[in-house]
Amino acid sequence: MPKPERPENPDVEISATAKAKELRFHDRPKVVVRAHAEPDGECFWGSDRTNLPDQVEPDVTYQDVRIDFRLGAKLTDPANDAED
After folding, report:
1. Roughly how many angstroms between the first and final C-alpha of the chain, as a whole number?
2. Quick check: pTM over 0.90?
């Protein structure tokens, strides 16, 4: 999943980077990302991977791995919604 385009002026944005000299999986991981911006906000997320495929293989050692993950949201103002 490519890193998402940055929306103009996100209200909240969190990013993280993980690095490893070696990374090995015994099983394929099951990853779920859930993000909500309520009541009517917009969420986005994505990751860039270096030396790590989207679908990892069990018992394969990956070298010099880097994962950059980004999560953000554009929020709504409930006070503005009440004025409509």
Report:
1. 37
2. no
